[in-house]
Design brief:
42% of the residues lie in helices and 20% in strands. By secondary structure, the protein is α/β, with parallel strands linked by helices.
């Protein structure tokens, strides 16, 4: 028991010694539970899972989400999948941001976007929620629109009044084939955000 407490204390001290500017939080938005697995709205979760696999780490269930940590380009990176459901994503983001003292400019939200064609990726450092409930709650909890988000296009192949059914629907086989490229590319962009910053990542990938 004593050794466990000593290791826990040492870990906490090491965490406090890390320069906040060297800490990053990558957050994939989605809904928890088997019911929502493999749905378009959960692509943020899928990208976080991909990054975790690439970094050979696992996420553990902790307060308000599943979280893991790794190093990238000498920086401390926290990977988060909120378990608050989409509409309360901001609660989880704010909690982990404050817990690890992560600057607002070092937070990146990975989110589905119906306004972009399937597979299209777009990094922005600020903006409106565009009707996305996850972004809406993050904006409310952080009291700002000035946080980075990586928009992942899921297309808009739905009729009038069918948006909710579409975003909560499962990927088609054709879409799954496209995701084999989209998810790794989104993961690369997210880690580029950590490595070289938002501006250079936008210059490199957005066009």
């Amino acid at each position: 028991m004593y050794d466990f407490i000593k290791r826990l204390f040492r870990k906490k001290v090491e965490e406090e010694l890390i320069d906040p500017e060297m800490k990053f939080l990558l957050v994939g938005l989605g809904n928890i539970g088997n019911k929502y697995a493999g749905t378009r709205h959960n692509i943020g979760f899928e990208v976080i899972d991909h990054i975790a696999q690439e970094k050979d780490i696992s996420l553990s269930l902790e307060t308000l989400g599943e979280i893991g940590q790794c190093k990238h380009k000498g920086k401390q990176v926290y990977l988060l999948k909120p378990n608050t459901y989409m509409n309360l994503s901001g609660k989880s983001v704010r909690y982990w941001m404050q817990k690890h003292k992560i600057p607002l400019e070092n937070i990146l939200i990975l989110v589905d976007d119906i306004h972009l064609p399937l597979g299209k990726l777009r990094l922005r450092t600020k903006g409106k929620d565009a009707g996305h409930n996850g972004l809406k709650d993050i904006e409310a909890k952080l009291a700002t629109q000035s946080y980075a988000r990586l928009k992942i296009g899921i297309g808009d192949d739905f009729g009038k009044g069918q948006q909710v059914k579409y975003v909560l629907g499962k990927w088609t086989q054709k879409e799954i084939e496209e995701l084999q490229f989209t998810i790794p590319n989104a993961g690369e962009m997210a880690l580029s955000f950590v490595g070289i910053g938002a501006k250079y990542t936008m210059d490199k990938f957005n066009n």
